[in-house]
Amino acid sequence: MKITLTVLFAVLLGCAPGWAVLGEYENSVGLDQQVMRGQVRAMARPGYSLHEITAPGRMVVREFVAPSGRVFGVAWQGPFMPDLKQLLGSYFTNLQRAARSSRLHAPRNPVVLRSDKVVIMSFGHMRSFRGMAYVPSLVPENVSAEVVR
Amino acid sequence: MNFDRSVASKAARFLALAAGMLVLFGCGGGSNNTPPPPVVVVVSISPTSGSVATGATQQFTATVTGTSNTSVTWSLSGGAGQNLGTISSAGLYTAPTSVPSPASVTVTAKSVADTSKLASATVTIIEVGITILPTSTSVPTNGTKQFTATVTGTTNTAVTWSLSGGAGQDLGTVSLTGLYTAPASLPSPAQVTVTATSQADPTKSASASVTITANGISVSVSPSSATVSKSATQQFTATVTGTANTNVTWSVNGTDGGDSTHGTIDVNGLYTAPATVPSPATVTVKATSVADTASFDTATVTILAVNNTATVVVGVEPDLGSSSFVNIAFVDVTICEPGSTSNCQTIPNVEVDTGSEGLRLLKSVVTLNLQPVTDGTPNQNQLQECVQFADYSYIWGPVYSADVQMADEKASSVPVQLIPSSDLFTPPSACTANAPPNGELNTLAQLGANGIIGLGVFQQDCGAYCANNPPLQYDPYYYCPSSGCVQAIVPTDFQLQNPVWMFPQDNNGFLITLPSIADTGAVSVTGTITFGIGTQVNNGLGSAKVYTIDYSGGATTGDFATTFGGKTYGYGGVANSDSYIDSGSNGLYILDSTTLGQGMLDCTQTGYSGFYCPGSSSSASATTITYTATNAGVNGTSADVNFTIGNAIYLDSFNNFSNWAFNDYGGANPLVFDYGLPFFFGRTIFIGIENQTVGSATGPLWAY
After folding, report:
1. One fold for both B42-126 and B129-304?
2. Collapsed DSSP state (helix, strand, coil) of residue B464
3. Where are the domains of chain A?
């Protein structure tokens, strides 16, 4: 996999592009960067584009947008959990189903959901939580789902 | 506590913003689009890491390719001003006679042909210590006695046993495991010395004196060693065989009944430690046969300033029974109303979680009248916290002040959380929005414990981040005036605390020791948590290697680096990967089956999805697979660790679902090494707390 990083532009708070949730169009529903009080920038990558919001205190959310304008993946890292309902949109209920308990499935462990419909991973410990999610059917041709990190 | 946060917080906010921008510009993929490089000089070194005892030698070999001139020059580097030892032109390294600070020495081989090409190895200098038990005893002719040697300062704890005594005499035999068998007749003199010599450092040995008797009497004291805090008691028992008179007399350091300096012992073997720690802190308790004073046995007692060791149990939660979760490590925690020694309550079965900070208890088990932590306004709004976890379960509850005690270590006025507070305030939507059904951990059944005690590498659960930044939607702290709950900037001393750093002593960290268990698990496992690192005789780092973690003030991931299959995860590794140790993760949540390889399979049976099922993806199999990964600290310390993963279906049902401790089950967690509780079995793991000094290092750190 070959990635060439090209920074197209970096925009500061107040002039951000429209933001979007997993599986929807980038300008459809706002993951309002003001929620994160963050800075946002967009980068062109081969076969897709990457929007990244960086908030004070290190919270970072990355959204991976196909040429069609649909968000095929999101990734996050920060001291606490972002609002996944906003990030994952309709796929959020899949995560909720994955996070269940049994004798082995104690609470507070990482969650990994892998299906044909969506792949979601959520892990970490206090002060450092991370995760990523993508919709396999929306990943552009010639782009590896592994870019969603 | 004070609530002033104006100027400092503005500066810190600016720094945090700057840190955020660094992240902004530091991210993004690299390029591997370059043409293959021309043949160049490459230097490699062997071995690349290892331990060398003080004064001992280690041969290093350098291999140079890409040039006909394979010569190298050798050099050493390490702590400034330290004696690092010497290395010869042939690569023979001789360690210094004392351990330098830090204990790591870098050995570098540099190509003579191309001096820009070099290779390095890291050597850890170890100081081997060895003790033997008992140190003095008698054995009748043809009788036996088991000796035990303890080697510290090295992972190679093997010893060689030997005997010495009168020349030409039959001294008896000693087995490879230290079992001594006396000769059939008295040697002359009737004294035999049993010696254990370290194989890691043969210059280090410990000896015991054995008196051979012809009276047929054996005396055995149990336990053969004990650790007692000052003024505390320890019961010893003497077993006498070979005579009808089984009475013994007891002495301490040669004084019948002992004395106030070294402790006293009564006729029944009850030892009482002195009120102050003697020097040396180790005394010898002796039981002498009344039938024949030639026969005796001894035990070694170590006296501590403060009892710093609490018991940790991995097993069923007694009130939950079969509804318990596996691999939860429990400890008893005593809480008191601040300043009180009588209004106290011991809460059993609180989970030890090295992946969080702070004590969180079910409100239903707490009977004390604790004072709320408030915002200091006339309304006295109480601090509330919502903590979300990786599976989006959450805890919501108010913060109170309590003294927190484990063993004899007590921290004063510690902010602790009682859960839930749903009866007082509806959890804010930002707290609940992510939660799965029944996602609030507010009952024993949900939590699997009476509470969680977060004992990690940090001082607070949030730290500077929550003290300096305007809260974001998902940040944890709230005040709840009548107008509704609002998020708050909270100074660090109002936040939930890892109580260990607030202890008056033994406050730089702690160590958790859990014994090895079978790969099929155990019903229950008992281990210890010992507070302080290198502060008392029972909490030294020994041979443990120190791994510092990714840390820069409040902005930190707490990760180290793990290399497996040619890729590095966590610190400095692939994007958004992670590597950490977390006793609150109940399994080894590591990578994915494809990346692990060696035939690893994902479970496909209903109820086991997400777990690993080597041998058979859909049924029980006794198969286990062992992997080796390399953990590296930010400080450059690096060593291999092994971990084993078994079949979750097999392990779960083994022993009719009655095993609650497992060292080898786990599940998928792509890009992540989450070394959960299984990693702790058979290890002693040290946790050094942020900003606290541990030996020559400063926390946050891990050592094992």
Report:
1. yes
2. helix
3. 6-147
CATH of segment(s) B42-126: 2.60.40.10
User: Which parts of B91-217 are beta strand (E)?
Assistant: 92-94, 104-111, 118-126, 129-133, 136-140, 144-146, 148-152, 159-164, 173-174, 179-181, 191-198, 205-213
The answer to whether A34 contacts chain B (CB < 8 Å) is no
For chain B, the structural domain boundaries read: 42-126, 129-304, 309-502, 509-703
Residue with tokens 């609180």: B350
- Whether residues B436 and A95 touch (CB distance < 8 A) is answered with yes
**CATH (residue range B129-304):** 2.60.40.10
Tens of pLDDT, residues B293-323: 999 999 999 999 999 999 999 999 999 999 9
Closest chain B residue to A12, measured at CA: B21
Chain B residues with CB-CB distance to A98 below 8 A: 610
Reading the block at residue A65, the tokens are 């947008």
Q: Are B17 and B43 in contact (CB under 8 A)?
A: no
Q: Which of residues 104-133 of A touch B (CB under 8 A)?
A: 104-112, 114, 121-132
B555 contacts on A by Cβ (under 8 Å): 57-58
- The fold of B309-502 is Cathepsin D, subunit A; domain 1 (2.40.70)
B671/A149 Cβ within 8 A? yes
Q: Which residues of A fall within a CB distance of 8 Å from B29?
A: 3, 5, 45, 147
Classify residue B672 by burial, with Cβ atoms within 10 Å: 0-12, 13-18, 19+: buried
Task: Report the share of chain B in percent with pLDDT over 70.
Answer: 94
Mean pLDDT of chain B: 91
